[in-house]
Amino acid sequence: MAHFKKPVQPARTLILGYLIIILCGAGLLMLPVSAKNIKPIDALFTATSAVCVTGLIVKDTATDFTLVGKFIILLLIQIGGISYMTLSTAFFFFLRRDIGLKERLLMKESISYLSYENLRRFAFTIIRVTLVVEGLGAILLFGYFLRLKMPIGRALGHAIFHSVSSFCNAGFSTFSNNLLDFQTSLFVPIVISLLVIIGGIGFIVISDIFRTLVTKKNRRLSVHTKIVLTTTSILIILGTCLLLLLEWNKSLSSYPIVQKISIAYFQAVTPRTAGFNTISLSFFGSSALFLIMLLMFIGASPGGTGGGIKTTTFTVLLLSIKNLLRGRSEVLVFKKKLVPEQINRAFLVFVLSLSWLLTAVFLLLILEGSKGDLLRILFEAISAFGTVGLSLGSKLATNLSASFDFSQAGKIVIIATMLIGRIGTLTVGSALIRPRQLTYTYPEGKVLVG
To answer: How far is CA 407 from the centre of its chain?
Structure first.
């Protein structure tokens, strides 16, 4: 009797891979050499936050973890940031093994690549870009920290950690109060924000820019790249201006003009999935926090190191709604027509993301309603889903996220939200529901909507 292999299900395999890495990371963080007196749930939370490049913390990275523990967190951030499938592809190459269909499916799923072709070359492009950008960032930060009279070893450690954490949009910091001590510095926020932006726009965009502007292999930038760059620029500029407008005479009132602009710019960049902050968000008004939550929900770009619904999804949604209101059947962007499948995927991502967020917030209100107000819980949930790491802070401890106050069940909800936000709602959805092709059709029915 012939035996038939089950069809490859990349979504389930990808999720399983992330879970294995997270569990291994949690186990390593529980070792005495990594941290002292850390509970299993806190080790699991920290490992998930690192692998999902989120940055929400229930233990102070600076004081609660040893040098070994910090290195493990850094390693988990790097694996999660560039995708473990990218590293696996490179590993297969060094073993002189060709990657088969299963590995190609997983690779394509994990980095949001558009084609099955040249996946191995693209994997090495990701690794090269990562090493170059993180290396340059570390050199710049190392030089600055040396100017602050830090010991060489300490300066090097802080520089490497923050460069990797920034490029991977993780938001973890080896300073207890994050980047509040660099509030008056323009250099550190600029370097960190540039690393965040480069990591957030995605490797596909970086490769496209390089092939178009540097090597001249492409005649022009792709529509995807144009959408990402345009949307990213608009969100940063608009976010900066709105934060200045909303907080000029409030939380920013005591700062000089240049510092006001610097803080507003930095806090407009970091909600795009990197939870660094140069000012305590608890000082912000409700309107500014609502803006930050919106930016966190939108997130970074496909193929990048961040989460959220993605800039391209947001743009496609806006263009589709505009065309529907105008009675047009086609959606055009940069003189190109979007196919219906892309539009449907954008709406599906939005609906699934919003559905999970509402579910997570509802569960947290049931579990933690007596410990925190709606705004604090909503902010934490959106930050987890967008893999951002910004938080309104714990009421019970300084320098920790609001999740520190949650029960084990509440932390598990946040853990699940971080994982779904990093992997993607479409991937999780396809892992839970098997696609099925219909060999027949039904008659049309009309329903009144609106």
So the answer is: 25
